[in-house]
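Figure 3 (text version): structure tokens given as input.
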């Protein structure tokens, strides 16, 4: 099973700090479709509930998990996740594949891996059910794949019902939404996708967005290189769509995108508003490079200026009428898509995000004049990165007011008391926060 070996190699790379999706793309290209799917399913299952697999393994091991060699730990985690989550595989062949991999990496541990994985195949589900049905908060955090401190914080700040929704969202398998360019006909594009084996249908929220049940590799799909569509989650589309409607209803054409990243929102705005110009900043040289390339792909690069640098220090070419601050954040609303993020976050890191967000928002407010708009967004569901940041900005800037947002059918959850949340709850909608401010 080449998929098992590839999963182990991907897992090792991810430990160096890379995203699963990045590594998977690199490894996946050389694998046949079935093996690529197996590798992807294994690494995502393992990463989504990493602490759960470690806990289950502990209960089946006679020695402390930490004393095992790193390669053996990896094999046991992927094996445990595969056996308890992948239903369409014969457990015995999966166990055999992991034992074979151990023989290559750590022959001395092959018997241990064989014994532990066989035990998990026969008794592991019972343990899983036990945790699922336990009312204990620690067991719930384990079952849904969350670090305990995060589960506790969400329970405290969201209350039991909404926190449960966030817990469940950790296990929703994400799919692609395609934002169509204004020159792309949704019906024709849907047919082309179908010919390529991808089923798609219209999003209930946007008439220029198609949903799919694919997790595919966008650059190798039909129409991507020609700029006919862009993969973008519908929550992210909601944010850039709001910038578009503010620009058109208030007649504001000069936009500053303070943290433009790879230019996904900038591309959306420029392709749908021909009279808008965007100045795009980002700290990362690589992202600015990718952003420029993205706008070129869409054919809108000549209405943009890009700068690499710290948005706390850069100066705009022209006074902006709208500032979009799509702030760097913990990404907690996108952990269904990028589950490695939750294991890399710490309380200290979370508060350093809040500090940076507060400074960036102050800078954004400082750059607009009377009537100017600041659109603040994060893909996080932590109040520390959202309402708290907005609350501090409103306190220190009495000339700023919040503007109400219409959901247009999108299930918005009012922040407490500022801004709006899009809570993660379907494969096409990540968790996002959005707040629109105006200078009086
Ligand atoms: C949420 S991402 C932006 C995504 C982007 N708006 C899009 O839709 O493609 C946040 C970005 O902020 C950038 N960033 C972080 N700190 C920054 C700073 N001090 N100045 C400018 N950019 C910064 C990161 O490099 C990252 O690309």
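Below: residues designed for each position.
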């Amino acid at each position: 099973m080449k998929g098992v070996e590839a999963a182990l190699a991907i897992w090792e790379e991810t430990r160096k700090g890379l995203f699963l999706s990045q590594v998977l793309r690199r490894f996946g290209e050389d694998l046949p479709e079935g093996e690529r799917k197996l590798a992807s399913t294994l690494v995502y299952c393992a990463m989504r509930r990493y602490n759960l697999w470690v806990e289950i393994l502990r209960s089946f091991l006679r020695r402390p998990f930490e004393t095992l060699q790193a390669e053996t730990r990896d094999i046991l985690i992927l094996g445990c996740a595969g056996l308890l989550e992948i239903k369409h595989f014969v457990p015995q062949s999966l166990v055999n594949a992991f034992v074979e991999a151990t023989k290559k990496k750590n022959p001395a541990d092959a018997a241990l891996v064989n014994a532990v994985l066989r035990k998990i195949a026969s008794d592991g589900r019972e343990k899983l059910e036990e945790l699922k049905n336990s009312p204990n908060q620690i067991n719930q955090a384990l079952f849904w794949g969350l670090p305990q401190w995060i589960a506790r914080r969400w329970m405290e700040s969201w209350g039991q019902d909404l926190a449960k929704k966030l817990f469940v969202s950790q296990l929703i398998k994400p799919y692609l939404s395609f934002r169509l360019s204004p020159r792309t006909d949704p019906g024709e594009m849907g047919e082309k996708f179908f010919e390529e084996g991808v089923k798609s249908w219209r999003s209930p929220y946007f008439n220029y967005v198609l949903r799919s049940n694919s997790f595919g590799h966008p650059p190798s799909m039909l129409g991507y290189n020609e700029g006919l569509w862009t993969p973008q989650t519908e929550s992210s589309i909601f944010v850039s769509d709001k910038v578009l409607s503010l620009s058109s209803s208030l007649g504001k054409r000069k936009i500053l995108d303070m943290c433009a990243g790879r230019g996904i929102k900038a591309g959306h705005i420029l392709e749908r508003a021909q009279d808008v110009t965007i100045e795009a900043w980002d700290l990362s040289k690589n992202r600015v490079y990718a952003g420029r390339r993205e706008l070129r792909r869409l054919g809108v690069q000549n209405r943009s200026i890009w700068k690499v640098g710290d948005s706390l220090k850069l100066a705009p070419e022209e006074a902006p009428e709208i500032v979009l601050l799509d702030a760097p954040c913990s990404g907690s609303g996108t952990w269904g898509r990028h589950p490695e993020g939750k294991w890399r976050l710490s309380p200290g890191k979370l508060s350093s995000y809040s500090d940076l967000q507060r400074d960036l928002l102050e800078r954004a407010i400082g750059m607009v004049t009377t009537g100017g708009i600041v659109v603040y967004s994060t893909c996080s569901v932590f109040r520390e990165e959202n309402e708290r940041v907005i609350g501090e900005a409103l306190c220190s800037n009495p000339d700023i007011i919040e503007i109400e947002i219409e959901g247009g059918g999108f299930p918005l959850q009012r922040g407490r008391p500022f801004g709006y949340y899009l809570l993660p709850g379907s494969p096409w909608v990540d968790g996002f926060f959005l707040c629109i401010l105006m200078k009086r």
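Residues 259-265, 281-284, 287, 310-312, 326, 328 surround S-adenosylmethionine (CB under 6 Å).
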